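Pasting two entries for a bug report.
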Amino acid sequence: VKIYASMVAAKEIGGDFYDFFYLDENESKIVFVIADVSGKGVPAALFMVIAKTLIKQQMLIHNNPAQAFFRVNELLCEENKHDMFITSLIFSLDLITGKMVYANAGHNAPLISFSGTPYEFLKLAKGVPLGIFPASKHKNLTIYLKNGDKLYLYTDGINEAMNKYDEQFGNARLLKTANEYISLNPIDFDMALRHRVAEFTGNAMQSDDMTSVAVHYKGTPLIKVKTFDKNFVFNASEDELSNMLERVGVCLNEAGYGEHLKIQINVVIEEIFVNIARYAYGKDKGGKVTARLSADKNKFVMQFEDEGTPFNPLVYKEVDMTAGIHERNIGGLGIHLVKKWMDEVTYERLIGKNILTVYKFIRR
């Protein structure tokens, strides 16, 4: 991934901020943050430093943008003596799979270009700025980036920059300008766009901080396994679970996986297999489950295939981990763990069969 970020304050002390940091030692997952604090001067700067620290802390713990916003918002509301607020975006990007999860806290929509197509405004879920309402919640959205996709985050100091006639640069002009320079690398793109904004504003005084982050994704596509190393067939019965875990366990030991990873994989297998037995076939119907496995020092890929009724466990309503245990919906926690511990999970219905595949890339 290529990144370039810039912040030009309107006054000596700015209230905007950007941040980007890796979530793991192997630098395979990265987070981008951009934010705009209301107000100016020292109080806004202090509020900004606190928010920036809290966001990074929460993302390093949970890697969940919506949950991070929820917790940071609670903490900011507790000590918000100056009634300030923050608009922000958090993006969490898996550099190997291209999976990007993001949440919005009242910020303006960034620009995105897919596979060289013209920039467009990225779809955002509605989100309340941080520091206003203690109970406000935010929603995660997910997209998948491919090699060559581009993202441009910015604060409203850019699109709302004003000239001497009190005219704003505007979203339409921002989009048009971005597409004129779409072929440039991040640093040249940002500098060219800012130069165009400066030409528009002329001698007018800068009225707001101008902050931006340009990202070009250069990741690798998701590995597609055509030939699996092992193929197993089991009866779709919970009584068969121990047999499946034992046979898969032999493969995991041969691949040299650590105990922690093996425990996670076992939990994932149990959740998926039990779901097939209970919901795809039902207790009394019975049927077969074909399990295909590819496990080596670089990756673990396992595919589950059954001929039961159409059943996609991935559409289960996402568990709200910010809610109290008595407030959460029944079910969904197992699938939550599957999604959390695996790098990618896919489902498709083909020729009367449910096919669920999990991917885990081994980072040593």
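Entry 2 (this is the one that rendered wrong in the viewer):
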Amino acid sequence: MSFYHRALRLIAVALALINLVTCLALDQREWLVYFDPMIILVVVFPAFVIALPALPFLRPLGRGDSPVVDQLWLAFITLMLLGLEAFWFLMIALGTFCRDPNMTFYWPWEPRVAKLVPLNSFNLSEWIWILQFERPTPENPLIREAFGLLLLAMYLFVAPLAAAWLSGIREIASFWRACACWGCIQLLTLILLKVFLCWSVNLKYLVAFPEWFLNI
């Protein structure tokens, strides 16, 4: 194991402790704009406290990897750690300095006067059934959210398993470590993608089950 890899693991442990403390001590209300409270507690916070720091410990590579592949892997994980950690603190800064108690967004230089900003957000199921198929959303929630569930299944399970298998991994231990690493990466990038979809096209939820208080 190289010195750089050891240092990266120490940094990951430090980030895990920092993120755990900031979860408890700093303003996290910005996440409530994009996710339900239960999703924040069981998905978002564990992703930044556990999944992100775990990446340097999960090398999805078989034995006999070339030094070039090793260096590319370490560079990729470094970018993941630094980039997503910066995003974590960006969300804290937005919630602390740009949101008032009513969750209205103000830029730091903008006067805090009462304002009403219309936001036409929509769920993925509404966009598909109403805008594309031009018909009401089905009453059966599983049928209504079938497209979102299929996309999530392909994104979270099919893609990482296929990538791990196609990467030439044959040993069981290496295969499952690769799957764990891909799962962490997919979870973190899904959170990032969900926030950017909300910023760009006002997408509210990929999968919405208000009947069961489960929205993603």
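Dev reply: Rendering is fixed now. As a check, the viewer should reflect this: Strands lie at 208-209, 214-215.
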